[in-house]
Amino acid sequence: xxxxxxxxxxxxxxxxxxxxxxxxxxxxxxxxxxxxxxxxxxxxxxxxxxxxxxxxxxxxxxxxxxxxxxxxxxxxxxxxxxxxxxxxxxxxxxxxxxxxxxxxxxxxxxxxxxxxxxxxxxxxxxxxxxxxxxxxxxxxxxxxxxxxxxxxxxxxxxxxxxxxxxxxxxxxxxxxxxxxxxxxxxxxxxxxx
Amino acid sequence: xxxxxxxxxxxxxxxxxxxxxxxxxxxxxxxxxxxxxxxxxxxxxxxxxxxxxxxxxxxxxxxxxxxxxxxxxxxxxxxxxxxxxxxxxxxxxxxxxxxxxxxxxxxxxxxxxxxxxxxxxxxxxxxxxxxxxxxxxxxxxxxxxxxxxxxxxxxxxxxxxxxxxxxxxxxxxxxxxxxxxxxxxxxxxxxxx
DNA sequence: ACGTTAATCAAGCGCTCGCTCGAATTCGTT
DNA sequence: AACGAATTCGAGCGAGCGCTTGATTAACGT
Lengths: 193, 193
Fold this sequence. Notes:
By secondary structure, chain A is an all-alpha fold.
């Protein structure tokens, strides 16, 4: 098995992701990451050229989670309103889910080299494109109005900020949260689709 | 003049704040901060016990800027809608203004000790209280509905996220941005006050 | 059983970091 | 001018960092 896609490598990635999320990229040392999977710190560099390479991998797959959530919303929902709802739910689930530590992609941009940053930005643009598509349909259906680019930024801001206060362990489910937020942004049209 | 409130100390604080904002707390070294004001790195510790003390000071005065913005909005605006608008404008101005580097208070919580964190949280709660007060009035006037705590989180999320994309140098003024965002959250009631 | 390659270890290099400290300098007061 | 206090310097300590390297072990096809 090639080191590029070995099991150990995945193990390292997910341990690193959790550490990056919990204490931040700068404070998470390669020794910490190694200890989390039970190997010596030097062995990490058999799988990754640099510590930054680990971050790039983590952030890229985190962004991919958002892309996937968006694509699922677009294909599995029919009406503009339900597409928007699924976009909300999918985004929140990606943010607060347990599989990937997608939170890292929101807070560690600073530690990326310009070249790596461009790679991630491309994925982010893909996500933005899907939102804009759904928002255009929603606007055509009279659900929303105003500058749709600004609306997307407002919506994503609200959703992403949930990282600062929301816990899936609480009494508010992700679906409920998505519905409440959705009502803030389109209070008219109670049962339109 | 006591070292507690000397001019040099203020100089250090504002230089440190800018560095924290630009490259993050972890990557901003005390040597960087010292060089920015033209002294040796060791001299910093004549004014601050630790590097973290600098961050605490920066974050505390940043939070104070938001408190001040909120108080101004509450006293200088009359109707619920205009209070909310001034809250939006004041918050955005504090975020993107040139006097304080308030952005630091949103991104560097992780580097605070539990004790320091509690100090800042207290100020944040004060800000939240003002928002809730305005939102209660807005709800009473029929401007908004739903869970007001969630609404506050949604609004502040939208505003705070602007840090990721908004630049005051662009064609969109802060007042315009505040108005557009406000319309997203209360599209009915065009001219209600 | 052997040889080859993949995977891991153990040690440590070179560097930067926050911070210390005694000496030197500046400054206000008399 | 002289003194004490406030301020700054300059050198460096000790620790932790990312990363390297040569040796060592594990895994596997033949």
